[in-house]
Amino acid sequence: MPPTIVDIQQAAERIRPHAHRTPVLTCSYLNEQIGANIYLKCEHLQKVGAFKFRGACNAVFSLRDDEAARGVATHSSGNHAQALALAARLRGIPAYIVMPSNSPAVKQAAVAGYGGQITLCEPTLAARESTLASVVAATGATVVHPYDDDRVIAGQGTATLELLADVPQLEMIVAPVGGGGLICGTALAAKGISPSVRVIAAEPELADDAFRSLESGVVQPPRPPLTIADGLRAALSERTFAIIRQHVEQIIPVSETGIITGMRMIWERAKQVIEPSAGVGIAALLERQAEFAGKHVGVILCGGNVDLDRLPWQVG
């Protein structure tokens, strides 16, 4: 069974001492462009700069003391690695992070800065999984998957609990989808609090495996990692796909141009530094305006970890 609203509420209490309660902002320019009332849930202002800290924190603080003492482990080159390392540090336990050898030095430095013990491996999925298995065998650490984990999904859902508490009149919530942890937590929280809220996922056209999966009824393989929204290149799991099929009304694929336009609009008009993955939800609003016109719409800005030396409107 997927996490319940009670699981998400318990996760909110569990992470409350550690995670930020992020603000909800509005932007009159965006409202005018869409013809709707848009409410931006600012998860780019969460610890480690992304919603990922919620799920990692809930997973770490859900462990029994004897489990926690052996530490936690994962393979990741992105926000989840940082989130798990920080959550483990806050609990005072080890975090073993397997990272591909081609991970950017800045990301490796961030994980190490949070206290993560990094093991490098070849940059293939098989190498990541086999190296993680070796680390777990040697340490007894508990694996915390970035999205294929009920504790993580419940933690991600806490953002929507906050959003609906701040804006109870919401009619729609838009969140990006990659591996599915955020959209699943969003949908479970929304349906548990306000069943009439429509939950809509947005994803890049160049990484539209969730859209294709929902259309076909079977989990589809990911496309080559070409989208600028690097945080959304993960494939769905059977766990996340099952929740999406039941609770997510629609998946909207968006163009790369739309992602960049949405990201830049939030930088320029809302004065918020978001990453391309967070621009995906804004792109859905811009490219499908008629579907949102006149509505109260929440959008989860999932993260703000962007390479300032390679801003997308300056590349190429």
Number of strands: 10
Shape: globular
Helix count, DSSP H or I runs of 4 or more residues: 14
- Please indicate the percent range of residues in DSSP E strands (runs of 2 or more): 15-25%
- Widest sheet: strand ordering: 1-2-10-7-8-9
Average pLDDT for all residues: 95
| CATH top level class name of the largest domain | Alpha Beta
CA-atom Rg in angstroms: 18 Å
Task: Describe what you observe in this structure.
There is one protein chain. With 316 residues, the protein is α/β, with parallel strands linked by helices. The protein folds into two domains: 5-51 and 149-301, 3-Layer(aba) Sandwich (Rossmann fold), CATH 3.40.50.1100; 53-143, 3-Layer(aba) Sandwich (Rossmann fold). The chain has 14 helices and ten strands. The protein has helices at residues 5-15, 28-34, 52-62, 65-69, 79-91, 105-113, 125-139, 150-166, 181-193, 209-216, 238-247, 256-270, 276-287, 289-292, and strands spanning 24-25, 37-42, 72-75, 95-100, 117-121, 142-143, 172-176, 198-204, 250-254, 296-301. The strands form two sheets. A six-stranded mixed beta sheet has the order 1-2-10-7-8-9, with helices on both faces. A four-stranded parallel beta sheet has the order 5-4-3-6, with helices on both faces. α9 links the parallel β7 and β8. α3 packs across α8, α9 runs parallel beside α11 (238-247) and α12 crosses α13. The protein is globular.
